[in-house]
Specification:
The protein is 28% helix and 15% strand. The protein has 107 residues and is an alpha+beta fold. It has a single domain, classed as 3-Layer(aba) Sandwich (Glutaredoxin), CATH 3.40.30. The radius of gyration is 15 Å and the shape is globular. Bound molecules: FE2/S2 (inorganic) cluster.
């Protein structure tokens, strides 16, 4: 990781033709859920967003660090190691940091 990423994008696109690969068909949703949960639990200072297709469908599941590189051929087994690298590169939020004020949470 050359630059500190401020966002991680995870492709969850599904293509419905049998002969067209897609990140969703290869586990993109489970990978996105694992990153969302891991970043929240570890309070890593990075945004996680689901994304619809980077044009790297043949090489997916695809992840993109912003700024930074693509991570191609991602798998659930890679998530814990990547979370560790992101935590080292981005740091963690203080407890309560980034949480909306109570009056904005509704009742
Ligand atoms: S379906 Fe994920 S990059 Fe195209």
């Amino acid at each position: 990781m050359d630059q500190r990423p401020n966002k991680i994008l995870i492709c969850v696109n599904r293509r419905f033709k049998d002969d067209e690969p897609s990140c969703a068909a290869r586990g993109g949703f489970k990978i996105a859920e694992a990153f969302e949960k891991g970043v929240l639990e570890r309070r890593i200072d990075i945004a996680v967003e689901r994304f619809i297709c980077f044009g790297q469908c043949q090489k997916g599941p695809t992840i993109k660090l912003v700024p930074g590189n693509f991570i191609l051929g991602a798998s659930l087994d890679m998530v814990d190691g990547l979370l560790g690298k992101l935590e080292a590169a981005c740091g963690t939020k203080e407890p309560g940091e980034g949480v909306p004020p109570v009056h904005l949470l509704g009742s």
